[in-house]
Amino acid sequence: MAVLILGTFPALAQGAALEQARQAVRDWQAGKYNTDPAQAIGKPLDEQLRILERALAFSPVPGGLEINLDQPELAQNPDGTTVVRFPAAVGGQGGNVQVSLRGDRVVGIGWVSDASLIPAWTSSPLAWWAFLGLSLLWLALLFLPGRLRGLWQEGWALVRQYGRLYLGINIGLYGLFVLGSFTAYASPQVAMLVQKLVGGALQQVGLGGLLTAGPLEVALIIFFWNFTRGLLLTTALPALALGIPALLLNGLRYFFFGLALSPALFPAGRYLFHVPTLLIELQAYILVTFGGMVLLSKVLRREGYGAGFRALALTVYLGAFFLVVGAFYESYSLIYLMR
């Protein structure tokens, strides 16, 4: 009998959470949680942050929203937040309305589209094992005579040749990250707002449910995103314009990364497990930023754009390997160490 009684409490709590979430969705559709960010103009900083945080937490109701309140999915986050998802659609595009609860408070509601920038093939077991196999093969070939080892050695020879430039970029970009981290201690509300902006953006591009996947799938998705968006699109591509745009873009990015990923916002134990990820993955972008500056140097010295482009390509090669290592470690740490 005692076991039966104890077993009813989780069920009752779950039922209460579901009903609270349903009522929150009705209130959201009725406009109860509407917040205009323009209200923050002219207000004291604390009030500005509160208004902006609420506007982020409760996104506007999209036009034409159709929602099914009878088929909820409930999940519990490690931070104690209960998340309830209701199937929904907007203009024929599937998705869900996500309600976040903390205790008896509604702390967020928003529409999340099923449309994703993560390609469907990343969910294939064949792709996971191919990624693991190719990564191990790449690692093995770095120890054997051949083209891949030759490019690896040529890339690090370039780093040694421009050692002062490489060291300066490391100090500058890691320094901006550390500055952002310390700024979070002085302005934790600003840091939390930046963190929520980053989290919301990741949710919308399809990375919100990452922790529900297995370790190989998580590693593949992390590598795909970091390589295509972080290394190529927002570092190597700007670096083609003689390096400076990549340096400026990554300087800004590292400062905001420092804010959003500051130890001020995480338990010390969890943060320590994440430090290797930061060092490895941020180094990948530093290498390609360095490659862009070498390109600039070679053009200024009249060695030709082609020589500079080759230097940049070599740093992309080095950076890609760092991202492979970082993806596997980050996957392991997220799933097994930081929960």
Features:
339 residues; disordered N terminus; 2 domains; single chain
Give the topology.
Blueprint: H1 2-29, H2 45-57, E1 65-67, E2 73-76, E3 82-90, E4 93-102, E5 105-113, H3 125-141, H4 147-161, H5 163-186, H6 188-204, H7 215-239, H8 244-260, H9 268-300, H10 305-337
Antiparallel strand pairs: 1-3, 2-3, 3-4, 4-5
Summarize the structure in words:
By secondary structure, the protein is of the alpha+beta class. The chain folds into 2 domains: 2-113, no CATH class; 120-337, no CATH class. 65% of the residues lie in helices and 10% in strands. It has 10 helices and 5 strands, in the order ααβββββαααααααα. The protein has helices spanning 2-29, 45-57, 125-141, 147-161, 163-186, 188-204, 215-239, 244-260, 268-300, 305-337, and strands at residues 65-67, 73-76, 82-90, 93-102, 105-113. Strands 1, 2, 3, 4 and 5 form a 5-stranded antiparallel beta sheet that branches. β4 (93-102) and β5 (105-113) form a beta hairpin. The radius of gyration is 23 Å and the shape is globular. Residues 1-9 have low confidence and may be disordered.
